[in-house]
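User: Predict the full complex structure for these chains.
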Amino acid sequence: MAAASASTLVPPRQRRRLRRRLTDGLGWAVSTVAFLLLGAATVSIFWAIAARGAHALDLAIFTQVTQGTGGGLLNAIEGTLLLAAGGLLLAIPPGVAAGIFLAEFGASRFAPVLRFMSDVLVGLPSIVVGYFVYIAAVVDLGWGFSALAGAIALAIISLPYITRTSEMAFRQVPAEMRDAARALGATDSHVILRICLPIAASNVLTGVLLALAISVGETAPLLYTAGWSNYMWNGHLTHEPVGYLTYAIWAFITEPFQSAHALAYAAALLVSAFVLVISIASRMLMAASRRHSR
Amino acid sequence: MTRMFKLVTFRRFTAVLGGVVAAVLVAVVVFFVIYAWPAIRLNGWHFFTSNTWNTGNLYANPIERNGRMILPGAHYGILFLIAGTLLSTLIAVVLAVPIGAMAAVFLAECVPSQLRTAVSFFVELLAAIPSVVFGLWGYVVVIPFLGHHAYPWMTAHLGFLPFFSGAPGSGYGLLTAGLVLALMIVPLITATVRDALVSQYRGLRDAALALGATRFETLWTVQLPATRRVLVGSGILATGRALGETMAVLMISGNALNYLPRNIYSPISTMASFIVSQLDSALQDPTGLAVRSLGEVALALLLIAVVVNGAARLLLYYQDRTTGTTT
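Assistant: Here is the predicted structure of the two-chain assembly.
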């Protein structure tokens, strides 16, 4: 209190207390600033995309295919959904099976190895996955740029996320449920598929949603697997490139035309909005299941 | 008898189907080793120590060297890529770890627990934003600002610092890439450290407070040090992500070729972004050596990612086990 007026008059103990209080305030201030900085960056990104994208969005985006550097994004919207759905379709069976194995048969010697490798797979750079599928499927198997090659690349990227969330989901099923079912004479497959799976399903879904958000936002693994196409998908799994929204962002923003920029901003808005909606949905799902289990 | 048999099958079924996850990782690594092998043999250690990536004269007839056909003048060295990758990652991690940890402190200690999930969402959204959207934001918002305002100001006023002087460039470059990468990896650190702080054993904090420490002293000297292993583990994981980031870096780094950065504004390339930018031209090489050398870049990146992520995971597993026994 009196410290500000004349520090020499303040006894050393009070001075120390003042210094400690100042350090305290400074520390909290730094942590608040750190948070505000990150919050501001998030807002800046979404604002930049939303403001520019809102200008670019019109009906043609949803009704027309891309023509050169103009037109709409219908082909890319369709392609993004197709690739993401294909990737999930391929990734869910092995991913969930791995999760079940890790949660239910964790005592197995193979379990820690599988968990470790799945966790390392998360860190695989997505371009390396894309390059792998490009050489192996697009070139060596001769599929060309295609929906299947793109879906496989996305599946590899999604796998570890689905594995991890599935393991967590099955671990959260109370042990009493399993014991009760086993006591009634249920087999392993019955216990896991009929008893545990319905309980774990909503949490497994959270992982699937996460993988979906990642798939929709990926670019690097698709550049050399799905290619790009101005046309709607013709139903062929191979030998037919498909368009996707993230390509439009990357390729059209560096074009010198206003119409190309508009497509890039519109695509960025669509992708970001989609990812935002999925993130919120999966959070609500997680919160709901937590409330339910409590 | 039949039940025993069935039990084994379901377990095996999940093991085999789930084993695909592990098989994919092994397949990718083995594939790149085999694929890049001719390039590894031919390029030798020069690959990592020399600074020239040159696919050679595409219009000349291939010549033979060490029993393999190559284009005249072809030489593959990626020192500039290693420098660009490591330096941009270094900047990102040096910025993201302290900022991320302090933001985690704010979320764990200053925000009431009912609001914590909602407020944390602002930071965690950064993790959900796709790489290419970061690149777009960097391209249209960050680069004009840094290139026209921040970097000229920094050369004028911070030029006395090493690597801060020299031509400020156009905004594309090392520091820009580092800044955007920092934002991309920071939510990982914030989320892990926040969870570690929230789930920490309360007795630690109470004991320090009872001894008369202020709230921040408690945090700084007791609570944060207790999360050390988590902080290091998530920092390494974040490092792995920054090393492998492709699209954002591709759009904002300036894509330098055969050029070592002179200052923090210099254009750079990273290994991941280089694969995207060079694959088309590498495919023009009829001898296939260019694309296999690019495969060697991918292999190097892959092995770095495996080592970095493996180390981080082992560290975090250990943490899980130790906290599992104390709480």
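The two ends of chain B are 43 Å apart (CA to CA).
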